[in-house]
Amino acid sequence: MSHLSIGVVLLVLAFTPALSELCNPQDKKVLLQIKKELGNPSNLSSWNPTTDCCDNNWEGVTCGAQDQSYRVYVLDLTDVYLPKPHPIPPSIGNLPYLKMLRFNMIPNMVGTIPPIIAKLTNLRSLSITYTSISGQIPLFLSQMKTLESIDFSYNKLSGNLPHWLPSLPNIFSLSLDRNRFSGPIPDSFGSFPEGFTYLTLSGNRLTGNIPATLAKLDLKIVDLSKNMLEGDASLLFGSAKHTERIYLANNRFSFDLGKVGLSKILMILDVSHNRLYGTLPKRLPSLKHLIWLDVSYNNLCGEIPQGGNMKDISDSAYAHNNCLCGSPLPTCKRF
């Protein structure tokens, strides 16, 4: 083989990795800039400019085929250690094919939710959890019509719950637990689109009555626990609904629990530490999927229904009520 031929072969081999790299060059450039804007955290050491960002070795990065090339679809940054406080990286808006964005367990992530996120016109899932992000939920999110899931749990967000959230046409899940939201639940929350099934607002400073409009929702999971809500929450129940879990503990709700309808697929019911009265629903023993029940610290009375999974419920689930009786509590007195 001539020296020229050998040179050509070596040149081809030298450029083969670059030619075979799946990662879009612009996406790679943006990811490296994001890393820089976060202070080059050690957790992102796998983000090496000499390697392929789409070879499943870059921490938190997932790619997918798009127009005969690969683009970054998912950025999931969890437990990234930031020695110093940093805001959400400004370059995040330059990943145009991003469908899922997640920042999780990053306590030194500070500041507000930046408008640059609005550039992510393909985003379906936005999750910012267990950070120190503060401020209000920004209005620009109302223009992101592709959003299906929002999770802003465990941050330092404040202000009132935005009335426009139900206007997102594709949203099916909203989690705002453990923040500093205050004021009432907006009446508009009863007009989430069909298919909306997941609402969790626990651990905030919400006050007032639950709006009657929420009766229209058919939620699989609802968590309003640990707020200062009051009044009648029975409208969240219904035998025709498909509710799997209801958490209403540690509020000031007051209604007749014995008159509520229960979903046949109910698994968890926690209404402890409220002001409920009446008896326990007679349908409880027929719930084949029930694994957790807590009605403690209320004003309930009467005999505990027997049968089914009720035998697995401990006595603590009934503690501190007016006059509940029957197994596992003392036998009811007969007069």
State the main characteristics.
single chain; 335 residues; mainly beta; Leucine-rich repeat, LRR (right-handed beta-alpha superhelix); 11-stranded mixed β-sheet; 6-stranded parallel β-sheet; 22 strands; elongated; disordered N terminus
Task: Give a summary of the structure in a few sentences.
By secondary structure, this protein is mainly β. It is built from 2 helices and 22 strands.
Q: Reading side by side through the largest sheet, how are the strands ordered?
A: 1-2-4-6-8-10-12-14-16-18-20
Total number of strands: 22
Q: Which CATH first-tier class of one domain would you pick? A: Alpha Beta
User: Mean pLDDT across all residues, rounded?
Assistant: 93
- CATH superfamily heading of one domain: Ribonuclease Inhibitor
**Fraction of residues in helices?**
under 10%
The CATH topology of one domain: Leucine-rich repeat, LRR (right-handed beta-alpha superhelix)
What is the beta-strand fraction? 25-35%
Regions with little confidence, pLDDT below 50 for 5+ residues: 1-19
Question: Rough shape?
Answer: elongated
What is the N-to-C order of secondary-structure elements (H for helix, E for strand)? HHEEEEEEEEEEEEEEEEEEEEEE
- Terminal CA distance reads 109 Å
Gyration radius (Cα, Å) is 26 Å
Count of discrete alpha- or pi-helical segments spanning 4 or more residues: 2
Biggest β-sheet strands, sense, barrel: 11 strands, mixed
Looking at the overall shape, the CATH architecture of one domain is: Alpha-Beta Horseshoe
Structure classification: mainly beta
